[in-house]
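Forwarding these from the shared drive since the link keeps breaking.
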Amino acid sequence: MIKEQWIDPTIPLIDLHRHLDGNVRLETILDLGRQHNLPLPMWDVEGLRPHIQVSDPQIGIMAFIAKFKWLTAVMVDYDACHRIAYENVEDAWREGIHYIELRFSPWFMAESNDLDPMGIVEAVVDGIDTGSREFDIKINLIGILSRTYGPEIALQELNALLAHRDRIVALDLAGDEANQPGELFIDHFRRAREAGWRITVHAGEATGPESIWQAIRGLEASRIGHALSAIEDPRLMDYMVEHQIGIESSLTSNVQTSSVPDYISHPLRAFLDHGLLATINTDDPVISNIDLHHEYQIAAPAAGLTPQHSHQAQRNALMIAFLTPEEKDSLLTQYFA
């Protein structure tokens, strides 16, 4: 029997790494598909599920990303993007999450239907704001540059995000890590830092620890998404501990992308034992068919974590969240006074 001991009720429940464009409800895909006469492969939830969700490990990250096909296909206009952003807020609230950082790539969301990335950002920001007014949950937005498309498209994404710089707290780099290295995006991230944004980078998921070093030293990341290959470089792990570089771990996602062969092979426990500020997150909940409770209560034990490890991951999430000290105090006061 699963017990709540894997989640400490005295610590905020936080998700720092969730792609809102990887969390589109199956019911919403069907609804938007009907509204816009889209050629969906099936027209009921259970029939649609295998076309969206991952049941077996994929052959790599890009194969996993291909599962986004129907999620982005229904982003037919800005109203649809607004709805998807709003529903992400409601979903997090229903999960009992106290604080969440939702991230999105304007170009990735715009590409399938030839939308303007500027319009995407506006719709997402407004959808998050609307949801935040209705639900009792703290939300921050992280913009993504999708490196898959190269630095020129990334520049268009960056400009779209900067148009709403006051509503975004950080910039991320995601996508095809193996073929689009972080060195190509140094100027993009310099501009992001000049705008006052924090930096988190997907690194060490598809490549070795050199990608993580580049993200930290070249892009000045204070957090790393996944960071799996850090386990190969003890010097890097020591550096990350010393400089308090956070890790956004996503257990199920890493198994499904074949970044690790199985849960027990995941380095999260070793990261926590080493004193790294590693955390537990969902990544793309609809595609992975999970929520944050699953990651704590099912995935974490499967990965060899004890309840004490999971509680430490919760504390780490609060410590490395892109919140001011005052906002962290407010979060604790609001829910745990």
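-- next protein --
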Amino acid sequence: MLKLLTTLFIFSTSAFAADDGFTPLFNGKDLTGWDGDPKLWKVENGIVIGTNPSPEAMANNSFLIWRGGTVKNFELRATVRVIGDNNSGIQYRSGELKDVAPWVITGYQCDIHPAIEHTGMTYEERGRGIFGLNGKNVLLDPEGTLWQLSEHTPVKVDVSQWNEYVILAQGNRLQHFINGQPTSELIDHHADKRTLEGLLAIQLHKGNPNRVEIKSLHLKPLPETPLIPFDPTKLPPTATKIEKPRTSRPQGTGPVVPAKK
């Protein structure tokens, strides 16, 4: 009887996992389905590892790109940590910049950064820059002006430990979460610059030595979602125009280690 119950439990658990709509994007053995600089990326003990050994090792941020298709409306769940005083990020709806170098990406990013204001923020790599810091919900109007709609207490995490990052992309509404808590939200009405579909990738940052590790990455496609229309009369009373946030900590929380000449 115990063997039968155990068998039924395993079957039920497997059926639930198969029916929840999420697909694992790593096979736990190698980088099949992914494309990145083989000098920088590997799989070890079921963990995907990207390593920047020194400031002079990389001329650009380099990305491990998923070649299984593009992402549009989706929920992504990733368990990640970053070792070293630097940052990483999850790229989505992004595009390649092959004229710059192989494995260079531009597009939306959920930042994974040791500085609390940056981790989980909404950001655009090699594009429009920072939109909403951790704890800020923002909107870009059709002219690209940034509005802060609301704010909340930033989510505090240690990025050197395993954390679950969730990206929810539906139409022109992008939401980021860490360990189930919302960090930042962007509603992008800037039609000339926004993207609604593109590549998925993981960032390995140049500069300060660091290692990014991915334990799991699961993707769930979502149905087509109507774009939220821009209506200035429906902005909340607390909405305020703000300047694009800038950073004094482009890599980690300490100084940038210069490359040796």
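The helical segments are 2-19. The CA atoms of residues 65 and 201 lie 4 Å apart.

- D.
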